[in-house]
Amino acid sequence: MDYDRAQYAALRADIGDRPVWLAASTHEAEEDVFHALHADLREQAYLIWMPRHPARGPVIANRLGTTPRSGGGKPRGRAYVMDTVGEMGLALALADVCVLGGSFHPSLMGHNPLEAARARVPVITGPYHASFVDLFRKMKDFDAVLISDPRNTATLIRDGLNGRLDERAANAQGFAAQSSGTLDRTIHALEQML
């Protein structure tokens, strides 16, 4: 996983030793779900929020009472909005559990969980993931992902923060490595044909 180690150290120092959950690739239609999760978990864990569309960062940050990374803000309070492109690796390095957005509203189709899986971070997704239904089915069979509705998600996040999803995170990392190997073999076979 690629991220800037100096940035990691600076953010970790700002956040302190609090456990961290990541709201990753969220969409406007589901933001209320994530705000409710934060309200439920704010005393137990720090939230890093990465909206799918960085332009949403200032709006989310304002509602959370914090400043967005794009505006030069540093973590303060109990949440930080990383509304920057190309820093998912950094956010995953800081996270104890990842809740993958794009999946908590019927108008949404889900996002690819493999980046979080490769980082060995427990992955939770919502019920709306039609774009990746086969991938999530395979990961579920591998005991490598949790599919949740909003009512159960806070409990699952707590499980991740308390280490009760560590085995599932290891399974996810193994699944992602296996999937990457399949892709590499396919590319190699195609190159031989060309």
List the helices and strands and how they pair.
Layout: H1 5-15, E1 20-26, H2 31-41, E2 46-51, H3 57-64, E3 79-81, H4 88-94, E4 97-100, H5 114-118, E5 123-125, H6 133-141, E6 146-147, H7 150-161, H8 166-193
Parallel strand pairs: 1-2, 1-4, 2-3, 4-5, 5-6
Helix pairs in contact: 1-4, 2-7
Keywords:
single chain; 194 residues; alpha/beta; Rossmann fold; six-stranded parallel sheet; globular
Brief characterization of the structure:
This protein has 194 residues and is α/β, with parallel strands linked by helices. The chain is built from eight helices and six strands; from the N terminus they run H-E-H-E-H-E-H-E-H-E-H-E-H-H.
Helical content band? 40-55%
Q: Structural class, from secondary structure content?
A: alpha/beta
- The radius of gyration computed from the alpha-carbon positions, rounded to a whole number of angstroms, is 17 Å
CATH superfamily: Glycogen Phosphorylase B
SSE pattern: HEHEHEHEHEHEHH
* Count of the domains: 1
The oligomeric state is: single chain
Figure out the total of helices.
Answer: 8
Cα separation of the termini: 30 Å
Question: Strand arrangement, largest sheet?
Answer: 3-2-1-4-5-6
Low-confidence stretches: none
Topology, number of strands:
6
CATH hierarchy, class: Alpha Beta
CATH third-tier fold name = Rossmann fold
